[in-house]
């Protein structure tokens, strides 16, 4: 195979660039070297650029000669032109581009159409008319379209393959391009099973050149891509661009614990300081893991006068399109947007040149994800900032999520008696945590080393080439070490890991069917060490990881230098996904009781036991509930001081919220199951409300100073409990759902207890994570949406790697833990 780290010389011949021994026959003569001249013409006339950028020219030259090409180049390098120009350089015929993301496709198709290029896209959003036109075009055998963007699922459909057969027979199938090719690799962070099937293309259409492009692939992933696509070994043109994005300033904001109010305030400060320094507003993105955080942060920033909007798949695509347009326009104009608070849905394909900052509200799940997301900044080459908010508590949480997902894959592989899955995802997260924890190694160097560049970190002159004081470590070495002292101590985190270790292993303790051998040897073992290892892992595992490394992989830890620090605050662990901020718990954890019936006007001060009455008649007597019936849950009073002085009259907070509620979630398997599940629930329950047991409930009432009223919280509690009851007590598959949750006995009291306990935890979580009533409402709505998905049994078995999965996983885990506690007889004290 060609060398992986250097630019290889393109094959001297014009075609076929395939092993002579291969049965592969060239389909048609490629262009001669004069094509290079044509390509420059296309670059200038069609795309309006003066010169090729980086190694674009070499790549384009190799492609037009018909070579298989592998491109690994940093974000923003201009990979798209590497296949778009060759596609137009061909006299006729079509280039098929497999792309994983709708947003990515849309973005490229729109831009090409603006340049009058004949391009089509086939995905879940293609209208029947468009599809008909595409089929007609392809079935002619001589398509007029020059590029076809398509999802891997659609490409592998029998119908599409039949059409491509026809095009191939007519020698009009010019090239097969796999964008974001790391999705192919099992070792890649965004692995998509359908991508694996793309290997058949080489066999089915021999002689058609293949191009694979990615910005994030370690050497292992690179090899896997080349093998999986069956790209030519001997005549592969492989380009590995240097990874460094020298204009990006990387910074870690160390954080003692995730405390949303303070964190949002910090982010506001950060952005407004940046605006003040530049003398004008700048474009930026704040990445958040959860949709509700996006909503709330955007509302918070708007309340403070910034032009901010949320962006996630829970919003209607028309709203998302508008947000994208307004953001591209910028905040200075009428209705423009400066800051987008987004999940990873706003990532690949976002190509705004002047994004001046990327903030990570929480820790991404992989190094590659972090690199991709920060890659949206500074694409015009001017300086831009990338700030990651990092706390060890959050790192613990992400480790658990990634570990759970890995365990699931181990389990699935074991059931299918297949080879064990790679530990890639777990290793990638560990590297990202290493990166965040390092306080003595340049961040640019760490990134490039992660992607396989050999760098001697002791060679100061070399390091300077990568980073000229463009990261916090190089610019403020002492300050970084001081700031890092804010992190929670290792002892505290160690105890959390121990706790997580217990949680993750409960199936085994309970005699579950999880394969022990795999589990202890797989990646799960590295994240949550096996029992025998716990003693050492707690005290040395994190320490080992947090070591002051000298190999570029180390953690570098100020805490180690200064000795262990006591935990900053005392806290009680409630459940995964439920973050108890220390301040709340210290404030006394005052509990208020109310009746858990559907009635919401109960006194909040006294504990009331209501006589059991017919729910329907109580409902009929309650005017308030009539309102709730038609409008399930909305805070009665919105905190107007927190409302946005929005400049966009067409898109107020409330409208955005309504859009959110009515969200028509876009493609993706989980999303489809979301819909199916919601349909199931709504079909099953003709009445919007179900009868709840009439018992007392205590809400945790921390003295947090938040303006979230008791009544609002009670409504939130009831809505959450209603939904849980609909799924678990009245759902079509209620029995199987309980089985999946881990409760096989048919004990109504136990079930009620479990649901009540689960509701309390979910409600408390929503309260803890919210700053305002609006945010609280949005979180409850989000949780309700996720609970509904549990009605679909597949969600329990096949969690997809989509943005919602970890939130669903948290709820699943919470319910399972509560069931386990109940089975062990601990669940009575609810
Ligand atoms: N030769 C060139 N001269 C100037 N600008 C260019 C050139 N080639 C591409 N660009 C611009 O660079 C930007 C990034 O291009 P593109 O989106 O293709 O990058 P990418 O490598 O695919 O990035 P990512 O992996 O982050 O999606 C685009 O705005 C594009 O117009």
TrEMBL record:
Reactions catalysed according to its record? Couples ATP hydrolysis with the unwinding of duplex DNA by translocating in the 3'-5' direction; ATP + H2O = ADP + phosphate + H(+)
A family per Pfam:
Helicase_C
Residue numbers spanned by region Disordered = 1-27, 503-570, 590-649
Give the source's domain of life in one word: Eukaryota
Taking every annotated instance into account, which residue ranges of this chain make up the domain Helicase C-terminal? 266-427
Please state the Enzyme Commission number of this protein: 5.6.2.4
What are the record keywords, sorted? Answer: ATP-binding, DNA-binding, Helicase, Hydrolase, Isomerase, Nucleotide-binding, Nucleus
Q: Name one GO biological process term.
A: double-strand break repair via homologous recombination
Q: A GO CC term?
A: chromosome
Locations of Pro residues compositional bias? Answer: 9-19
Which GO molecular-function terms appear in the entry? 3'-5' DNA helicase activity; ATP binding; ATP hydrolysis activity; DNA binding; four-way junction helicase activity
Polar residues: bias regions: 516-542, 594-605, 638-649
Protein localization: Nucleus
Task: Please name the SUPFAM superfamilies in this protein's record.
Answer: P-loop containing nucleoside triphosphate hydrolases
Q: What NCBIfam families would the database entry show?
A: recQ_fam
Q: Which PANTHER family match?
A: ATP-DEPENDENT DNA HELICASE Q5, DNA HELICASE RECQ FAMILY MEMBER
Annotated protein name in UniProt: ATP-dependent DNA helicase
């Amino acid at each position: 195979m060609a060398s992986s780290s250097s630019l290889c010389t393109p094959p001297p011949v014009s075609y076929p660039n395939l092993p002579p021994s291969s049965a592969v026959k060239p389909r048609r003569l490629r262009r001669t070297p004069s094509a290079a001249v044509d390509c420059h013409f296309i670059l200038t006339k069609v795309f309006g650029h003066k010169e090729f950028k980086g190694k674009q020219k070499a790549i384009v030259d190799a492609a037009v000669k018909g070579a298989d090409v592998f491109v690994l180049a940093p974000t923003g390098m201009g990979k798209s032109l590497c296949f778009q120009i060759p596609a137009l350089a061909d006299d006729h015929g079509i280039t098929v581009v497999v792309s994983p993301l709708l947003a990515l496709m849309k973005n490229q198709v729109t831009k090409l159409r603006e340049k009058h290029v004949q391009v089509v896209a086939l995905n879940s959003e293609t209208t029947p008319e468009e599809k008909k036109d595409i089929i007609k075009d392809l079935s002619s055998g001589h398509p007029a379209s020059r590029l076809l963007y398509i999802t891997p699922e659609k490409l592998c459909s029998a119908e599409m393959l039949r059409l491509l057969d026809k095009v191939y027979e007519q020698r009009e199938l010019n090239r097969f391009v796999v964008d974001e090719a790391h999705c192919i690799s099992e070792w890649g962070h965004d692995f998509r099973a359908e991508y694996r099937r793309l290997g058949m293309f080489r066999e089915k259409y021999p002689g058609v050149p293949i191009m694979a492009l990615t910005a994030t692939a370690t050497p292992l992933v690179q090899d896997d891509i080349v093998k999986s696509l069956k790209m030519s070994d001997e005549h592969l043109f492989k380009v590995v661009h240097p990874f460094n994005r020298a204009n990006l300033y990387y910074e870690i904001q160390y954080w003692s614990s995730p405390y949303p109010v303070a964190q949002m305030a910090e982010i506001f400060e950060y952005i407004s300081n940046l605006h003040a320094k530049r003398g004008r507003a700048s474009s930026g993105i704040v990445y958040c893991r959860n949709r509700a955080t996006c909503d709330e942060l955007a509302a918070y920033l708007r309340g403070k006068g910034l032009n901010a909007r949320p962006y996630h798949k829970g919003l209607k695509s028309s709203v998302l399109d508008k947000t994208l347009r307004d953001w591209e326009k910028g905040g200075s104009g009428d209705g423009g947007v400066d800051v987008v608070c987004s999940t990873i849905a706003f990532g690949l394909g976002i190509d705004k040149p002047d994004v001046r900052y990327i903030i990570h509200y929480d820790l991404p799940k992989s190094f590659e994800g972090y690199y991709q997301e920060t890659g949206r900044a500074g694409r015009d080459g001017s300086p831009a900032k990338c700030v990651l908010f990092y706390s060890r508590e959050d790192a613990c949480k992400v480790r658990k999520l990634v570990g759970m997902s890995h365990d699931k894959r181990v389990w699935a592989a074991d059931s299918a008696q297949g080879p064990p899955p790679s530990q890639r995802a777990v290793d990638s997260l560990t590297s990202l945590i290493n990166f965040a924890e390092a306080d003595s190694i340049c961040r640019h160097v760490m990134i490039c080393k992660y992607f396989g560049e050999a760098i001697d970190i002791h060679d100061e002159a070399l390091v300077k080439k990568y980073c000229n004081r463009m990261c916090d470590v190089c610019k403020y070495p002492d300050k970084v070490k001081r700031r890092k002292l804010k992190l929670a101590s290792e002892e505290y985190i160690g105890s959390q890991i121990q706790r997580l270790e217990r949680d993750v292993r409960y199936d085994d303790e309970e005699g579950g069917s999880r394969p022990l051998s795999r589990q202890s040897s797989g990646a799960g073992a590295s994240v949550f060490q096996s029992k025998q290892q716990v003693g050492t892992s707690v005290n040395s595992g994190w320490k080992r990881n947090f070591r002051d490394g000298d190999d570029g992989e180390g953690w570098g830890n100020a805490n180690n230098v200064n000795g262990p620090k006591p935990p900053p605050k005392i806290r009680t662990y409630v459940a995964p996904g439920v973050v108890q901020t220390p301040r709340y718990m210290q404030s006394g954890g005052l509990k208020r009781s109310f009746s858990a019936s559907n009635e919401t006007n109960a006194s909040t001060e006294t504990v009331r036991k209501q006589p059991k009455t017919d729910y329907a008649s109580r409902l009929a007597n309650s005017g308030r509930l009539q309102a709730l019936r038609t409008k399930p849950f909305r805070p009665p009073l919105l905190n107007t001081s927190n409302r946005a002085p929005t400049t966009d009259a067409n898109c107020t907070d409330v409208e955005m919220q309504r859009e959110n509620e009515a969200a028509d979630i876009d493609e993706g398997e989980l999303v489809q199951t979301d819909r199916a599940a919601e349909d199931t629930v709504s079909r099953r329950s003709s009445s919007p409300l179900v009868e709840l047991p009439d018992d007392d409930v205590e809400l945790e009432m921390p003295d947090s100073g938040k303006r979230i009223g008791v009544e609002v919280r009670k409504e939130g509690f009831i809505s959450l409990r209603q939904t849980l009851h609909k799924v678990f007590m009245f759902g079509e598959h209620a029995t199987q759902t309980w089985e999946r949750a881990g409760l096989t006995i048919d004990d109504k009291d136990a079930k009620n207890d479990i649901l009540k306990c689960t509701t309390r935890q979910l409600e408390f979580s929503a309260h803890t994570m919210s700053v305002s009533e609006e945010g609280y409402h949005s979180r409850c709505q989000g949780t309700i949406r996720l609970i509904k998905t549990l009605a679909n049994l597949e969600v329990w078995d096949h969690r997809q790697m989509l943005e919602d999965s970890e939130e669903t996983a948290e709820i699943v885990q919470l319910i399972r833990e509560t069931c386990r506690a109940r089975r062990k007889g601990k669940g009575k004290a609810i």
